[in-house]
């Protein structure tokens, strides 16, 4: 029997991926900021999460309960994976919305697949939502779902949140089925963005492309008000603080430093292996500082965690080759037997291992060319219970508008990145503590609960449990 919920989240990915190991079928937490942000919100409110389980099949796995969340899987076939996920979502929309830092690829056959899969998600959401429920649709993979769901279930309250940047009009206009995407989004009652500028881009686009009128941030869609607004996403700060303060995590952090040979400075990067994250430019900055003699190995070492991501998409394959070549070059030039300059880890980790890495790092480098938010930057700040550590942060990460005490840099300017890194490396402890404390205070009042409450209140759902 289908469970009907008064609060439903619809996202391309479930919080867990189905993986097949020697021990059979297992569920493993899936990567990415969306899952990090929404998992605690849904666990608190006991809602249903509609999403893809990670594998490919005609039939979805049966719905099940996990940590207080009702999980409702949606199937993707291998053709959907190729056309809707790898194609339209991650080779067209992803680069286009990230300032075209890689050239977007446009293919007509991907479009139909995107429509079909969006319709499947809308169908699943319509099935699990109780009468008058709130349905919160997430991210760029599902931009047609709001209108498709409204058509099926006009009784629902529909919210949409975009986790990535929303491009300026001139860039969005490159999209071949741009009006359809825009109408799809306008099916929601409230459309949330990470940044104020993105919300402004959106309302202007509605006028430019569809001739719709707006006042402030409210667009008139055939007499129905649709609101756009900025809701910067965050993390479960209390959970990260708890994890980082755990003696086992602290011991592991010490062990990591010892395994690295107790260097004076540990520099850390943690990202999905994605070309928007600026991993190469960060490695290059480190190499040039070693080359200039401003940093030396083994006094300074770098750890770069590069989580495998979208591995069949060409841009990602090319990036992996470039990053691994750069790591090899640095280690070849500056490493010694048993003492590499860069420790490169192309793996997934548990939350506690990540917390230990954050605690072990003197400097965290978050240098995306473009990023909707970047939760890793917030995780690092929250994890520094000892109030040490310094954050180098790109001005093009959404987090830069909030974490003003980071060492901000323009990732397109190599000298600026090097300078920010050196300043972070040489920061005096009291100054580091002052900066981290201010950012921690801010994050405690702007955690993921605050993000979800603010969005849902604006949608007219003051208390999800009562919805
Ligand atoms: P994005 O959503 O683009 O992946 P974010 O920085 O916003 O970027 O979020 C990434 C999330 O994925 C963070 O919560 C981070 O802790 C998690 N993550 C990144 N790398 C790993 C990894 N190797 N193992 C486990 N979790 C990871
Ligand atoms: O936050 C952006 C985002 O694309 C999420 O929608 C997604 O779940 C995450 O990054 C990881 O990407 P993917 O689901 O393609 O592995």
Automatic annotation (TrEMBL):
SUPFAM superfamilies referenced in this protein's UniProt entry, alphabetically: UDP-Glycosyltransferase/glycogen phosphorylase
| GO biological-process terms attached to the record | trehalose biosynthetic process
- Family designation: Belongs to the glycosyltransferase 20 family.
Q: Which domain of life is it from?
A: Bacteria
* Annotated source species: Asanoa ferruginea
Q: What GO molecular function annotations does the UniProt record carry, in alphabetical order?
A: alpha,alpha-trehalose-phosphate synthase (UDP-forming) activity
Lineage of the source organism? Answer: Bacteria, Bacillati, Actinomycetota, Actinomycetes, Micromonosporales
InterPro entries reported in the protein's UniProt record: Glyco_trans_20
Identify this protein by name.
Answer: Trehalose 6-phosphate synthase
Q: Which PANTHER family match?
A: BCDNA.GH08860, TREHALOSE-6-PHOSPHATE SYNTHASE
Kindly name one Pfam family recorded for this protein. Answer: Glyco_transf_20
